[in-house]
Amino acid sequence: MATLLSTENFSKLGEFIYRKSGIYLEEEKHFDKLKKYIDKRALELGMDNFRKYFFKLRFDDKDGEEFQELMNAITVNETYFFREKDQFEVLVNRILPELHQILPASKPLRILSSPCSTGEEPYSMILHIVEEGKVVEERDIEVVGIDIDSTVIKKAQAGKYTERSVHAIPKKILSKWFNKKALGYELSEDLQGTVDFQVANVFDKSQMRKLGKFDVIFSRNMLIYFDDASRKEVAMTFYDMLNPGGYVLLGHAEYMSRIVSVFKAKKIDNTLIYQK
Amino acid sequence: MATVMVVDDSKTVRNYHGTILKSMGMDIVEAENGMEALEKSLDNEIDLYLVDVNMPIMDGYSFIQDLRKQKKQKNIPIIMVTTQAKEEDKINAYIVGSNLFETKPIRPEQLQAYIDILVKS
Amino acid sequence: MALIKKHIKQDVEEFPQFSTLEDAINFFNSNSEDDEKDYAVEEIAKFSGGGDFLISYIDNEDADKRISTKVASVISNMDPDDAPIEKIMDLLKLNNAYVRNLGISILRDFGDSIKYYIVKFLIGDDRDLRIFAINVLGDVDFSESRDMLVELLETEEDINVAMTAVDYMGEIGEEEDITLLESLKERFAGDFYAEFAVDGAIRLIKG
Fold first, then answer.
1. Touching check for A272 and chain B: CB below 8 Å?
2. Could you tell me which chain A residue has the CA closest to the CA of B36?
3. Rg for chain A, CA atoms, rounded
4. Contact assessment for residue C151 and residue C119, using Cβ atoms and an 8 Å cutoff
5. Nearest-by-Cβ selection for C128 from B15, B16, B54
6. ipTM at complex level
7. Could you give the CA distance from residue C153 to residue C172 in angstroms, rounded to a whole number?
8. Contact B43/A266, CB-based, under 8 Å?
């Protein structure tokens, strides 16, 4: 059976997804995956053309489940160390050195990871920071990880990871900072406790205020799951949580241009970042 | 090859202006609102901006104001387009730094004339 | 200097609780930090009459754009029944494009709870508001959306309004709408834009 997903349909679907989630679909990256998913899903729904599926997605999806399933099919939900690693590189090579020059000597540099899930993202920051080594020698750095899910926070605090989770860490760094165990890898004692993990809800403004101010916020692949109004709300909360000149980094396929105009867009080492 | 950025929240208008411009040999970059236009202007050498007034997130005037603050964007030609053409809108367009003000959609011949004058090929 | 290993309790200023709208407004007016102003905006919205104050703040040439964005976000999260809808609609008539667009974004976020107003715009004289109303129809789940667009297209004289509707017809239109769409090419004869948009929509309907 020929695929339901023509180039034109792909483009229409892409526009809709972009409107709803801020994710920008690219043919090279997403077409095949989407084609497989749509053909399969349409079959399940007993639909024989793209328009019927598209109509359901747009107008007959009251609780957003159909859209959520589509999102799950396109986005990589898996978290692992060094995912989208150019952002960690920009963090330690460009952002932290710049802020280190500007900040008063006694102030620590504070970085937030939201959502932190099982800790791979904030610990990836830590690994890059200790490997870069220079800034942390001259300045205190605090990394805070928050997530609404208490089970992932517990796991993050344990510091134990699977083979899959560490697959993208260069061998040298892995052997230096992790201890190989029977069931996986454990973060070395030197790095245990370097991330302050907390259960928190980004919509709870008083909770967010108590976390204090940050110089950098990583929020990758969280906002895409919210509706427009909620996305704006959280973006404005992040704005308030940043020190002047602080930065927000979103996921690779996410853009502030879908959300609010209050941040200044900048490109550093080919990575898009947003500054307060 | 010159590049034109078409900034408009209507896909049809972007396609329409884009099609005409491509037939004139221009490369096109599209943006749905002023903020996206700012993001994309970081990546691309733009020779002419075609900017809608009414867009969500960041409107055309705010975009032009921000764009003109950047050193390398001070002199890039900008044509503002709108569905309504009130005198006050025109004046505001020039105040923020637009070069021209037109009602949309722009006729192909008119667009060709602007390209000939504004874009060094 | 090092990686901090313990949880350091942040020295955070506790914001006051307000017992009246006036107290909240005073705090808003007398504090200038972003987070103080934003907190005040959130609190003001909780009081009856707060929405009115917030709208009048953004309905002002000199209003700070960032704070206005915050205000729009807070109002979007209000219960549509409590929100000053009529006042928000007045924003749409302003000359200031930024504020006008904020008003539109608020209404858009309210979605189908403002259906009555969407119809009012669709049959009204302001072409930008007709375009806005069509965009909402396209985004939101109204069962009558297609019928409303068809009805609009039967008599619409403004090319920009008509083509905005045509764009959505490409997505939600049916085979039986093709005749109407073809007729638009006659109504706007000689206009390449109309030809372009209508042909595109018909192509999509035919699948």
1. yes
2. A257
3. 20
4. no
5. B54
6. 0.90
7. 14
8. no
User: Is the Cβ of C97 closer than 8 Å to some Cβ of chain A?
Assistant: no
Q: Are strands B3-7 and B27-31 parallel, antiparallel or unpaired?
A: parallel
CATH superfamily of B3-118: Response regulator (3.40.50.2300)
- Contact status, residue B92 vs residue B61, Cβ threshold 8 Å: yes
Reference A265, options B51, B40, C206; nearest CA is: B40
pLDDT in tens, chain A (276 residues): 567 888 878 888 888 887 777 677 888 878 888 988 999 999 999 998 888 898 888 878 877 788 888 887 877 667 999 999 999 999 999 999 999 999 998 899 999 999 999 999 999 999 999 999 999 999 999 999 999 889 899 999 999 999 999 999 999 999 999 999 998 999 999 999 999 999 999 999 999 999 999 999 999 989 988 888 889 999 999 999 999 999 999 998 899 998 999 999 999 999 999 999
Q: How far apart are the C-alpha atoms of B25 and B14, rounded to whole Å?
A: 16
Distance from CA of B93 to the nearest CA of C (A): 11
Q: What is the DSSP letter of A187?
A: E
Helix (H), strand (E), coil (C) string for C4-35:
CCCCCCCCCCCCCCCCCHHHHHHHHHHCCCHH
pTM of the entire predicted model: 0.88
Q: Which domains does chain A have, with CATH numbers?
A: 7-74 (1.10.155.10), 86-275 (3.40.50.150)
